[in-house]
Amino acid sequence: MSDRGTPLRARLAAALVHATPDWSAVVASRLMGAAARMRLPAPVGRAAVGAYARYFDVNLRDVDPLMLEDGFACFDEFFTRPLRRGARSIDRSATTVVSPCDGELRDVAPVTGDTEVVAKGHAFSVGELVADEALAREFIGGTALTIYLHPRDYHRVHSPCDALAHRVVHVPGRLLPVTAASARREPRLFALNERMIHVLETGHGPVAVVMVAAFGVGHMTCSYQRFDPHPRELQVRDCDPPARLSKGDELGMFHLGSTVILLAGPGLHGTEPALPTPVRLGQPLLEERGAGGRRS
After folding, report:
1. How confident is the model at residue 289 (pLDDT cuts 50, 70, 90)?
2. Helices (H), the chain
3. Annotated catalytic, 158?
4. 145 is in which domain, residue-wise?
């Protein structure tokens, strides 16, 4: 696979991180996260947020004006900012599964009989991705959608449908950059990087929302279960009772950003959009088979 069209700085960054020991990428990412959480004097914070917003073209109209006026105590507070009320419209049809986040939809790929997913630049086992071979088999014949979160994006992740969250898993791993250049060097990077897996029971069958960390991600947090944000070993939390979630309820957030993989079973299907394409939280991505014309 050629690197043509990939910026030179992205290729060099990917090569540098891949060439360094795993522990150094983790340490560097943790230090970046710690720096993002440092309390800043109000003028410094406003200047930092303003510079970041201008450089990455952040849409500040999505932010509560009072929050912008009051300022952010640290950069992480800005990065994990909530949306203002009404900034996103959640499709409420009972037949749809919506985007769990803002971002760029990069791949829509089938889950094959051996639970492999082969997409543009990526090839990985769903069993390895979710750290559970039995769960992975429930997605055979279903779909894997990959959404990349740009630094300008809103970085909270939400439930794609009404659901019961009965398990959440935090898998420690590498922190490789999630870029096209990195994928060319390591097609399995999604199943190698640190990740948080939200396992959902839904009226559409099994659904999983996988938050994949990357180089520079300070940590990820879950909104309905407490976790060690820097796991050294696999953490599994069975929710007893399960967390009851409505479509659009918050699952967790990235402290700095990365990628979300949405896994759905064979009872759902989607269109074949030209990829990559931007998506927004609440936008329909999948629909029950045979449900066309009976959405409510």
Report:
1. confident
2. 8-19, 22-36, 42-56, 65-70, 75-79, 126-130, 133-137, 180-185, 189-192
3. yes
4. 96-288
Domain count within the chain: 2
Residues 156 and 244 in one domain: yes
In a domain, 130, yes or no: yes
Residue 293 lies in a domain: no
pLDDT at 13 over 70: no
Same domain, 136 and 208: yes
State pLDDT tens for residues 35-93: 677 787 878 888 888 898 999 999 989 988 878 777 788 888 898 999 999 999 999 99
Strand order in the sheet with 250-255: 156-158, 250-255, 219-222
Asked whether residue 148 falls in the same domain as residue 246, the answer is yes
Q: Identify whether the C-beta of residue 281 lies closer than 8 Å to the C-beta of residue 82.
A: no
Looking at the structure, do residues 117 and 65 belong to the same domain, yes or no?
A: no
Catalytic residue from among 29, 182, 223, 258:
258
255 is catalytic: no
Residue in 158, 170, 204, 255 annotated catalytic = 158
Examine residue 1 and state whether it is found in any structural domain, yes or no.
Answer: no
Task: Establish whether 296 is a catalytic residue.
Answer: no
pLDDT, one tens digit per residue, over 45-60 is: 888 888 989 999 999 8
Report the C-alpha gap between 108 and 144 in whole angstroms. Answer: 6
The pLDDT of residue 4 is 45
